[in-house]
Write a structure and sequence with these properties.
By secondary structure, this protein is α+β, with helices and mostly antiparallel strands. Helices cover about 30% and strands about 35% of the residues. A four-stranded mixed sheet has the order 1-2-3-4, with helices on one face. α1 crosses α3.
């Protein structure tokens, strides 16, 4: 991009308490977004700067209501949790006076329910895959938005 520098700003820091659980993920949505920005965005020179803002990067756990009492729960394998991930970013080209001259944004969400019998090592695999699929959804949308809104800045 025809910018002198790229700044990454995280506007959604994880509070590290329920229902937020991204700190448990092998790769959090915020880390995946930062990696994407470092891997895909290059400052090729120019007076302007690009601000890559992480508007939302979260993973949440919603315990699900299980049917029956303790004995029936033990006898049946029920859905116990719903994990949701979301990534929303905004890219702004900012001129030297601080004025936004171009903006692009994208949002992706995913969710996965799990059984109460899901072992911890399987949860790690599920969480990793959720983040991977989230980025697989977000990346082409970011590419489209950049092509549509930053055409004059592409090198």
């Amino acid at each position: 991009l025809a910018v002198g520098r790229i700044d990454i700003v995280d506007r959604d820091p994880a509070p590290r308490r329920p229902p937020r659980v991204e700190q448990l993920f092998p790769v959090s949505p915020a880390r995946a977004l930062e990696t994407w920005a470092h891997d895909r965005l290059v400052a090729a020179g120019g007076p302007d700067r690009l601000v890559f803002t992480i508007v939302r990067a979260r993973a949440t756990d919603t315990p699900l209501r299980m049917e029956g009492g303790t004995l029936s729960r033990a006898a049946t394998d029920q859905l116990s949790d719903r994990y949701d991930v979301a990534a929303e970013v905004r890219l702004d080209i900012v001129d030297p006076s601080g004025r936004r001259v171009a903006t692009a944004s994208a949002l992706a969400t995913r969710y996965q329910t799990v059984l109460q019998s899901t072992p911890p090592e399987r949860l790690n695999d599920i969480w990793y895959d959720m983040t991977r699929r989230l980025m697989a959804d977000l990346s082409p949308e970011l590419d489209r938005q950049i092509q549509a809104h930053f055409a004059a800045y592409l090198r």
